[in-house]
Amino acid sequence: MGSPAEALVHALRERGATVATAESLTGGRLAARLTEVPGASQVFVGGVVSYQTQVKVEVLGVPQQVVDTDGVISAACARAMAEGARRLVGSSYALSTTGVAGPDRQEDQPVGTVYVGLAGPEGTQVLALRLSGGRGAIQDATVVAALTALSEELTAVSAAGRPAEDSGLG
User: Fold this and answer.
1) Which of 22, 47, 78, 159 could form a disulfide with 115 if both were Cys (CB 3.0 to 4.6 A apart)?
2) 168 located within any domain
3) Residue 18 three-state SS
4) Cα radius of gyration rounded to whole Å, the chain
5) What is the pLDDT of residues 66-118, one digit of tens each?
6) φ/ψ (deg, to 5) at 139
7) Stretch 8-26: mean pLDDT, rounded?
8) Cβ neighbourhood burial of 159 (10 Å; 0-12, 13-18, 19+)
9) What pLDDT sits at residue 157?
10) Model confidence at 164, in pLDDT bands (50, 70, 90)?
11) Residue 124: left (phi > 0), alpha (psi -120 to 50), or beta?
């Protein structure tokens, strides 16, 4: 299979599963990468670009307490974003991205601090990344990490014989 996005779209289609996105630092790049793939409309439900905190809270349902206690550059925020996107659109899976692409630190976190959330029927997990490079390189690496994380989850789910098409929260 070609790109990580192509492989993921193919794997989702094979399993009858869908995906949504909740993006901050990637600014829609993750959704764009998915929708570049022919046939993505069968598996990509939609996404929210929640660049500002208010959208994370009011649209995705990130608890204000998470923002106040952990910040938006945190595993807790990535988890809440992914779960919120999944709940909002009723997808099997949801991917979220939050972090610092640069050029400056944010919430006292260094450039390259990134969290990718993955919510699905088996629960939610968060991948913490420490990336380097310029703003675009960090955003692109985050997109690839998110696509790869869900591809690996689908492989693990298939290997364990668990259904991937359950769209209800577990």
Assistant:
1) 78
2) no
3) coil
4) 15
5) 999 999 999 999 999 999 999 999 999 999 999 999 999 999 999 999 999 99
6) -65, -45
7) 97
8) exposed
9) 80
10) very low
11) beta
Q: Which domain, by its residues, includes 61?
A: 4-160
Single-letter code of the amino acid located at 73: I
Rounded to whole angstroms, the Cα distance separating 38 from 50 reads: 26
Cα end-to-end distance, the chain, whole Å: 31
The whole-angstrom separation of Cα 99 and Cα 110 is 9
Burial (0-12, 13-18, 19+ Cβ within 10 Å), 92: buried
Six-digit token string for 27? 């600014």
Helix (H, G, I), strand (E, B) or coil at 36: coil
Q: Is residue 170 part of a domain?
A: no
Sequence letter at residue 46: G
Task: Give the C-alpha separation, 77 to 97, whole Å.
Answer: 9
- Residues 56 and 47: their CA atoms lie apart, in Å, by 12
Q: Which amino acid is at 57?
A: V
Would 27 be classed as within a structural domain? yes
Beta carbons of 9 and 1 less than 8 angstroms apart: no
Q: 44-49 and 19-23 as β-strands: parallel, antiparallel, unpaired? A: parallel
